Amino acid sequence: MPESTAPQVSSFSTTFTPAHLKFINAKLEKLSPEKIIEWAMISLPGLIQTTAFGPTGLVILDMINRIHIDNQAAANVHPTPASSSASEDESDDGDHHFKKSGYNTQRHPVPLIFIDTMYHFQETLDLAQQVQDHYNIPLKVYKPLNCETTADFETQYGQRLWETDDLSYDYLVKVEPGRRAYQELGAQAVISGRRRSQKGDRAHLDILEIESGTGLLKLNPLASWSFQQVWTYLRAYQVPFNALLDQGYRSIGDWHSTKPASNPDDERSGRWEGKQKTECGLHVDYFKMRAEFQATQKKKQALLASREAAAVVAAAPAIQA
Ligand SMILES: Nc1ncnc2c1ncn2[C@@H]1O[C@H](COP(=O)(O)OS(=O)(=O)O)[C@@H](OP(=O)(O)O)[C@H]1O
User: Fold this and answer.
1) Cβ of 114 below 6 Å from ligand 1
2) Pick from 92, 167, 171, 250: CA 20 to 30 A from residue 286's CA?
3) ipTM at complex level
4) 285 to each of 107, 121, 168, 292, how far by Cα in Å?
């Protein structure tokens, strides 16, 4: 049974009371997303961004890069462009390179993680590469435990696990790898691309949340934006985006649970179509999810054991005869 080590408790957020959180959120509500992100980059230790390269996450990523560039410029830092030769460096001053090369030559200041469920669209995987090239960022990819390929996953858990045991599927492909990422990177605060206009559980999303039990901070800097605002930003700043958006997709997850949006007023209407489900588990109570997963595994093991015992009993008369 895949297990991460016990979830760490964020030492930073343990100093927050509910009153502190309310106060901070009231302040954050008055800030633009850029200012929220800037505040987080300065104030929150162990800050990382988790993204499936949805339109919201791409806006956030672009904003982080712009803030980083501005900060470097303000601090008069002159990074060496990855592509320039030594002789060019001698003839031009650093500032010239900085302006000429733009943010493609900057080191990304907030670690970026992507959970590869093994069932993403090829368009999403292509975009992941495009984004890394565009921003010159080292992407940290996390996969289901002990799985390099889809075949590895299916050897361990069977084919189309989402049809037979949706909860275990979500835990194995998203929740556990995500938690492993947070542990390994020492994350204390995680930026996500959720927005209130995505409706469902997200309709009343706070900008800053504290995960119960672990104290992990979750920051949703674009909580107040509409899809249209996100889209306008992407086009205005020429941010790379998923080719599936041009085919009517609005929210993009695994290929087997994602379709173009069926309702133009509900951007997540193409996710888990025909099911009650609205979340993959990444943003629900971690301990509850883990407990349910463990209970399901126990039941499966008990069932297997009783089937094996029944088979032994059934074979017994044949052996005696
Ligand atoms: N596979 C994967 N890897 C890393 N991070 C992920 C992943 N799936 C979801 N997320 C994070 O959740 C944000 C909302 O995603 P979705 O609207 O697609 O919903 S869901 O999480 O799949 O239910 C999503 O926002 P974006 O950054 O806009 O993609 C991420 O912050």
Assistant:
1) yes
2) 250
3) 0.99
4) 33, 27, 15, 11
